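A quick aside before the break. I want you to see a complete sequence-to-structure record at least once, exactly as it would be stored in a machine-readable document. Don't worry about memorizing anything.
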Amino acid sequence: MVIEYEKDYLQELYESGVCKNKKYRFQKQVVQKYQKRIDTLMGATRIEDLFVFNSLNFEALENGYFSIRIDYHYRLEFKIRTEGNETLVSICTITDITNHYQ
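That is the input. The structure line, written in tokens, reads:
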């Protein structure tokens, strides 16, 4: 899948592991797992590829959103759209990292 980031801090966290905005600073192990989850999404060619990973706890949310587990406390929320007639390109738009229990 092609990855797009809805918010700048999400791309910063993936590329450099840190974020300039103090509001979006996470523990090192959370960032490492986030980067690993993005790599997993990049490796998927279709949404069904994510179903086989039980550790992701893949969930369909409301309004076309999906989520996978980063760790026990955090979830990665995203949307998926497909473009192109002959060549299907799935584009995953990463929307947010949320605290699952708040």
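Two observations worth writing down. The longest strand covers residues 89-99. The helical segments are 8-16, 28-43. We'll return to this after the break.
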